[in-house]
Amino acid sequence: MVTQAGQVLVQLADNIMVGHLGAAQLAGVSFANAIIMIGLVFSIGFAQGVTPVVGQHFGKGDGRAVAVALSNSAVLNAIMAVVLTAVMIAVGAFMDRLGQDPEVLRYARQYYFIIIAGFIPMIAFFNVRFFSEGIGNTRNEMWITIGTNTLNIFLNWVLIYGNLGAPRLGVAGAAWATFISRVLGAIVFLIILFRVEEYRKFVRLTPRHAVHLREMLHQLKLSLPISLQNLLEVTAFSFAAIMVGWMGKYQLAAHQIAHSLSSLSFMIATGIGAAATIRVSHQFGAGRRKDAYHAGIAAVHMAVAIMVFFGILFVSLHGIIPRMYTEEPAVIPIAGRLIIILSLFQIFDAVQMASRSSLLGLKDINTPLIFSAISYYGVCLPSAYLLGFTLGLGPEGVWTGLLLGLATAAVLFNVRFRTVCRRYIGQQNREPDYRENSLQAPPSHSEE
For the chain, what are the domain ranges? Predict the structure, then answer.
């Protein structure tokens, strides 16, 4: 949970500290992050494909297979990092065609291209991180994230405002602080991979010709749907930001305040989801299917409890939180209303994330991908446009559309997880000779 929250705290710190420069600067960073988040979430989903593979092999006790999975995922992620960076640079060239205010666009470009330059080390960090999660260790990534976030906030203070004799870089200073922090985080985690015995033993178990096309294609079949599923959700929120941007810079700044809070609580729920993926994959890999089901249900209960807490907190402080970001009187009341709507969809966000992550632990990915398309492109975006523009409800209407999409996803993912688990448990009950430590479980829908 701390690690996941740390991924978004970088942007939260940037937004708060840049917000005091002015509404245009905050809106510029908001617009840039709406695009950056697409690449960020795609890369997280792609790298996350190694977790259920490593988790199920680790649950079985097959260290050599764990090492092979790490080697192939490293090659896949290196290729993806180069391709994604090139694509994001190309996308940045078309930022001026998305209907944003020219002043907002100027600040967005200052921030965007520096952040994109840090994508390759960031993806290297993700690769080691999700391997570490696959073997059940989430401590090292947590400490690295805490350290790099602390460094990022300090460098923001130095570079944005020109403290300690540094030049006052404004928006660009926030981007450079993030870039430096991500590079150092990747270097530290790679050193740990090759120096700490808990990881190093798998490096030693790696066969000479571990990397081969068949294994990479197997992992690609997992990684690509996961990244596409994440992409569907994040692009829905990014398109919502673009819609709000058509309404004006004050509305977009207010949207960014609410969205940064949403991202924080969401990433904490994602931390519970990451734990669910680990626990479900370990239990399923060891043949303990009822325990895998119980791990997923426990994750849902925990996520709901925590997100309800955040919802109550956001409602209670909806008039105070916006003032932490900006002193602009035109932004504060809009942000307050959006925070109230945000509070209402916390429970749906919790259920959909925990259920989807539990399905990942079972390597059930294709049907959830279809569910994501239905929820975010069939319900969320059409509802957001209808309520925001056709019915004239403004940013509040757009956010109500987001709520409806999340509610749909929560129902579909949770029902799917319960159905798949019951089928697996029923199959195991009918097969008394099934070896409990075998990975050769009956195929999921994604494998069929």
Answer: 2-429
